[in-house]
Inverse folding.
């Protein structure tokens, strides 16, 4: 076993954000009250950001250590608790054992770099974006906690600890979506996110149980090859049982349900668009760049199990592909700039799943990486736009911003070319890689490839539509009226419409009116992310694929192969993107003044528009089924079954015996005693009746 | 050291007797202000009663913690801190005062003494007949502790019944509007069950001449042989008599309807003790008496209990979701949580059993905390209606934070105590041949439902705009309330993050129980490679 010299630093990666969380939870508010708004907030926000960047620094050290590590595995084990050389047991009952241990390998370190790197930038952005919020300390408390849990998720050396991070990030997501809890809608969106995620988590939890039941261990890999992923690669469990495709099918599907929840795949995607109720930095960090990709990370980590079953791979690919095109159609119709990006995220996650389903986990992770760059950028850019327009999120009331907020515009432009898949920007390389592998899928490879290309064209179209409506078409708002409502400052006590973000944003001139560019703390992250979106793809070009080569030790070998040559794929992909962009250009350039393709009347009568605009009625279906009908059933269970039948039976039998005791009551005084007696008798009878029937069912 | 266990049992009773000699404090007037505690004139008598009771319960707690130092984890079998002498003789009947503890009892005793201290501290705010209230609390504590120590069936029965009396008065005198109905229902319903148990005890005694829980389960003893000479039908009925008493106590579906009424009407400390400790007397009864004395019958009926447990998990959670009353919501959530405990017990796997004991403790901690918090809200607003709140997080942020922690523990978020218990139970159930993966899947849906009712509760009480003007000036938590809750928070994370402190006490008793059920130590048993499908449960499951 080759040693990683810096392994004892691993605990710091998670330890620093945890420290930040604890510090801010106990002292954050105090600091702001004591030191005053201006200084206090700078201390709190600065500390939170600095700790995440410090964690990034440690990750870099480990990363370089890993690069220079010898041997084919490039794997090291460490304690997740700082300053301990050996992992401490968290649970250890009858062989059911999970440590607070870290697995350091390319996959986990890659994710650490993304989470802390992008996370640090978004923290920095948030110090500006949230500057006027009265719950500033609480915001950074949750943000640090999120980073901690996300790092636990990616670093865990066993699947139960990964589940800790998994549910932990879900908690933070819930807390941050409902951050502005005084608006009930935000709180409801938080609930929806948590509950839908829990549905997925049941699948994940059962997957863990299946793994333990079969392999007898929860640990991924161990130094002596006793982990369950070691066993899955070897094809035999520790007890000698064969690891068959049947077992891989059960475990794989259960884990996939979990992945669908966290990564918002159909039909568990419904929570993610609503999650946009949270502050925009949250949308960028949690609901675009990091947490929602956890499903892909998990599937990649589990790749030795997934690749064992052709069926699981196909299911992953088909669900991913369907989600990609399904969400893209909805993105075409949304007017809220954050909602467009949210559905775009769902769609892009679908691509990542498609990559995993094709057996190309490396390609999926590559898209996780580039998507983290450009989608974080697009969200932060959108936040900057919303900020500039004093809390306006509706693209119908935007337009003409390209000249007014130049830095935001230029960075958004970089995000746009990246996501559309224009060579040589980041998204092109990763999307192309995924589609190439998708074409190589045994069954229906070419069909899958075709749908993937159509989705690429749709992506280019809806993103161009977003750019047109926001930046290029004519201005469709009254600049003088902006900021006149006296928003900004600490005014989010006043309720705004659902989803109205940035209640709290303001900058140096809180009451200035008109369009305003964001402060430097927000622009610096934008510029850095824009640079990454432009050049970030070069780490994984087919000519010199450093990225996938680096990840190789973490990923199971599969039969994935390119179904089309690089040049064909690149050409077709570029053409698809070009079609989408050109179509948007020809349509929107003619309608600069309105920025609208269809009139309201045309929209109303057009089923092709109505269906995606109504989210294909999925949300409504779930609402009817679970909230309305489920609620009715619950009330019926309570009122009818519990109160009338079960409790009624108890009281009724007491009552009947009460009738008998009526006779005695004439003889005796003291009806309380009679009531007690009748009740006693009644209960005895019920009990004996139930007991008797119970004995019957036991059959003995 | 054996006197120590006796001290833990009887210190509270002694305290209660002393308390009777204290001067009776004046009843303070009920405050009906908007949460502002009217600064009552300091009443020396009341203060004396309060602090004395607190001192007694604290000393008892320290004594029970002292048990840990003398407890030998390495001891292979049997009980520790044993006292065994004749209690009374009546003709042929020789009832022994036989007490002793194993790891399971130890943890439940710690839970009892721990929650008692907090309950006493919380009850400082009782205004009506304070002295009597404290007397009943202390008597209750002795009875509960006794249940977890008794090794003689009659002694067990006496403690088991003795619990009812102080609880009956706590609900009946200090309860809310329908307290008489609830108290009578609570008393009679559980009394019915225990009457059947008494019949069972008498029958056992007549046939075996023994009342010893130790002897009845030990192969080779006279009592054991005589008991097992009885025909299967008789043993089944005997088992059923005990099982029913404990089922009502747990309570398992469909014997749960006394619970919401009792909880809603009980004063806060009563609800905490009721949910935290009393219900565990039911699960403890199964573990200590039903399973070891009647292993075959238990095995035969396991399917029925697992089904009822799972129905309880789902049903309790669904009904909890639509309760308009916070206490009722928490009460129904208890039905759901206790369903998990019973699922663990009847999985007949070591994991499930350990999980069941852990979850018994966890439920006491997290539900106890929830009841304390509902009680704090009630003291401020004099209502438990969810609709009377709304948006109060902005007004009482500290309270909201504490509530969130209790909530997360209740919905079994990882790193809280609830997760460790619930997950081990589900894992135990998954590998069990009694339940298996498909039933475990149904039970696991409780994970989703608990999030539904708890988050919805949080939303309606704490988030949104402040709905009622009178809530705008609610008082946030005072020092006494924080002192009550902080230990619970510590326990939530202690159990959640480093459960090994506690599970090491459970290895020996659970292994012994498993042996009694005919299931060997699972860790050392080789796996059977012929049954590899994760859909059929692991070969390491029940034998």
């Amino acid at each position: 076993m080759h040693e990683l010299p810096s392994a004892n630093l691993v605990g710091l990666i998670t330890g620093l954000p945890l420290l930040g969380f604890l510090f801010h939870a106990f002292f954050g508010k105090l600091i702001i009250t004591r030191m005053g708004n201006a200084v206090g907030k700078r201390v709190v926000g600065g500390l939170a950001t600095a700790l995440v960047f410090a964690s990034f620094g440690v990750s870099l050290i480990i990363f370089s250590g890993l690069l220079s590590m010898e041997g084919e595995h490039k794997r090291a084990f460490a304690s997740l608790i700082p300053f301990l050389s050996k992992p401490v047991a968290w649970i250890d009952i009858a062989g059911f054992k999970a440590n607070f241990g870290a697995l350091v390998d390319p996959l986990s370190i890659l994710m650490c770099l993304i989470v802390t790197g992008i996370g640090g930038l978004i923290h920095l952005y948030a110090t500006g974006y949230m500057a006027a919020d009265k719950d500033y300390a609480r915001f950074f408390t949750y943000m640090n906690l999120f980073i901690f849990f996300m790092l636990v998720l990616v670093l865990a050396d066993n699947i139960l600890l990964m589940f800790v991070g998994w549910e932990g990030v879900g908690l933070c997501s819930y807390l941050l979506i409902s951050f502005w809890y005084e608006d009930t809608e935000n709180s409801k969106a938080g609930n929806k996110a948590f509950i839908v995620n829990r549905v997925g988590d049941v699948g994940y939890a059962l997957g863990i149980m299946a793994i333990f039941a079969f392999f007898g261990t929860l640990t991924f890999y161990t130094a002596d090859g006793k982990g369950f992923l070691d066993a899955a690669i070897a094809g035999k469990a520790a007890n000698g049982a064969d690891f068959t495709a049947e077992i891989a099918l059960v475990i794989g599907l259960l884990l996939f349900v979990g992945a669908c929840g966290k990564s918002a795949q159909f039909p568990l995607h419904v929570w993610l668009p609503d999650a946009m109720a949270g502050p925009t930095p949250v949308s960028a960090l949690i609901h675009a760049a990091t947490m929602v990709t956890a499903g892909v990370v998990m599937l990649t980590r589990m790749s030795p199990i997934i690749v064992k079953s052709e069926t699981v791979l196909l299911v992953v690919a088909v669900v991913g592909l369907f989600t990609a095109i399904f969400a893209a159609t909805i993105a075409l119709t949304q007017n809220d700039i954050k909602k467009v990006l949210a559905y775009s995220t769902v769609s892009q996650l679908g691509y990542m799943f498609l990559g995993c389903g094709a057996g190309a986990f490396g390609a999926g992770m590559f898209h996780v990486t580039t998507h983290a760059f450009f989608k974080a950028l697009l969200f932060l850019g959108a936040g900057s736009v919303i900020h500039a327009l004093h809390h306006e999120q509706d693209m119908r009331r935007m337009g003409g911003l390209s000249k007014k907020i130049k830095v935001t515009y230029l960075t958004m432009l970089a995000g746009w070319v990246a996501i559309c898949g224009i060579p040589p920007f980041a998204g092109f390389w990763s999307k192309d890689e995924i589609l190439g592998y998708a074409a190589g899928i045994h069954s229906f490879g070419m069909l899958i490839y075709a749908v993937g290309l159509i989705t690429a064209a749709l992506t280019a179209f809806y993103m161009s539509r977003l750019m047109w409506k926001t930046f290029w078409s004519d201005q469709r708002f009254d600049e003088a009226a902006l900021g006149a409502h006296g928003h900004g400052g600490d005014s989010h006590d006043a309720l705004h419409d659902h989803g109205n973000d940035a209640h709290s944003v303001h900058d140096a001139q809180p009451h200035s009116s008109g369009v305003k560019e964001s402060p430097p703390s927000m622009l610096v992250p934008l510029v850095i992310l824009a640079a990454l979106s432009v050049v970030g793809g070069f780490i994984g070009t087919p000519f010199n694929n450093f990225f996938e080569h680096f990840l190789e030790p973490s990923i199971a070998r599969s039969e994935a192969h390119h179904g089309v040559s690089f040049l064909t794929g690149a050409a077709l992909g570029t053409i698809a993107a070009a079609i989408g962009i050109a179509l948007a250009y020809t349509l929107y350039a003619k309608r600069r003044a309105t920025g609208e393709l269809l009139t309201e009347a045309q929209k109303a009568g057009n089923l092709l528009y109505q269906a995606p605009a109504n989210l294909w009625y999925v949300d409504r279906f779930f609402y009817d089924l679970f909230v309305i009908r489920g609620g009715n059933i619950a009330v019926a269970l309570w009122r009818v079954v519990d109160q009338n039948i079960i409790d009624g039976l108890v009281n009724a039998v007491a009552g009947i015996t009460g009738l008998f005791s009526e006779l005695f009551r004439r003889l005796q005084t003291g009806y309380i005693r009679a009531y007690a007696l009748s009740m006693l008798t009644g209960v005895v009878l019920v009990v004996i009746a139930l007991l008797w029937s119970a004995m019957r069912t036991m059959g003995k | 050291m054996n006197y120590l266990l006796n001290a833990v049992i009887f210190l509270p009773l002694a305290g209660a007797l002393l308390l009777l000699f204290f001067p009776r404090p004046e009843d303070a007037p009920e405050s009906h202000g908007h949460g502002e505690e009217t600064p009552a004139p300091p009443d020396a008598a009341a203060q004396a009663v309060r602090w004395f009771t607190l001192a007694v319960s604290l000393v008892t707690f320290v004594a029970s913690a002292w048990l840990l130092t003398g407890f030998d984890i390495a001891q292979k079998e049997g009980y520790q801190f044993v006292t065994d002498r004749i209690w009374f003789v009546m003709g042929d009947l020789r009832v022994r005062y036989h007490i002793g503890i194993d790891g399971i009892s130890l943890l439940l005793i710690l839970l009892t003494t721990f929650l008692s201290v907090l309950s006493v501290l919380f009850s400082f705010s009782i205004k009506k007949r304070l002295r009597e209230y404290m007397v009943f609390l202390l008597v209750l504590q002795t009875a509960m502790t006794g249940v977890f120590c008794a090794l003689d069936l009659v002694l067990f029965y006496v403690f088991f019944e003795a619990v009812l009396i102080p609880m009956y008065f706590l609900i009946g005198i200090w309860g809310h509007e329908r307290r008489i109905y609830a108290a009578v229902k609570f008393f009679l319903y559980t009394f019915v069950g225990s009457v059947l148990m008494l019949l069972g005890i008498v029958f056992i005694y007549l046939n075996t001449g023994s009342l010893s829980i130790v002897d009845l389960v030990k192969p080779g003893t006279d009592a054991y042989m005589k008991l097992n000479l009885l025909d299967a039908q008789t043993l089944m009925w005997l088992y059923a008599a005990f099982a029913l008493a404990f089922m009502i106590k747990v309570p398992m579906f469909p014997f749960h309807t006394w619970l919401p009424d009792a909880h809603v009407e009980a004063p806060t400390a009563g609800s905490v003790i009721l949910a935290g400790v009393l219900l565990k007397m039911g699960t403890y009864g199964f573990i200590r008496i039903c399973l070891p004395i009647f292993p075959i019958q238990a095995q035969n009926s396991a399917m029925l209990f697992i089904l009822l447990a799972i129905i309880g998990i789902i049903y309790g959670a669904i009904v909890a979701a639509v309760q308009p009353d916070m206490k009722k919501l928490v009460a129904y959530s208890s039905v759901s949580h206790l369903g998990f405990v019973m699922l663990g017990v009847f999985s007949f796997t070591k994991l499930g059993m350990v999980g069941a004991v852990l979850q018994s403790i966890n439920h006491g901690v997290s539900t106890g905390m929830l009841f304390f918090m509902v009680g704090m809200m009630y003291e401020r607003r004099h209502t438990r209606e969810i609709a009377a709140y709304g948006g109060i997080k902005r007004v009482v942020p500290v309270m909201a934070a504490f509530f969130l922690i209790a909530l997360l523990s209740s919905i079994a978020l990882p790193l809280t105590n609830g997760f460790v218990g619930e997950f081990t139970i589900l894992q135990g159930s998954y590998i069990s041949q009694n339940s298996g993966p498909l039933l475990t899947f149904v039970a696991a849906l409780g994970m989703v439902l608990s999030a539904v009712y708890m988050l919805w509760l949080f939303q309606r009480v704490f988030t949104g705009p402040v709905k009622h003007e009178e809530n705008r000036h609610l008082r946030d938590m005072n020092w006494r309330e924080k002192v009550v809750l902080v230990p619970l928070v510590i326990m939530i994370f202690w159990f959640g993050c480093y459960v090994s402190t506690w599970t090491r006490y459970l290895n020996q008793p659970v292994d012994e129980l498993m042996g009694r059920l005919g299931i060997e130590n699972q860790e050392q048993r080789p796996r059977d490679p012929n049954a590899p499908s994760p859909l059929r449960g692991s070969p390491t499951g029940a034998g």
Q: What stands out?
A: Residues 486-511, 667-671 of chain A have pLDDT under 50 and may be disordered. The longest strand of chain A covers residues 89-93.
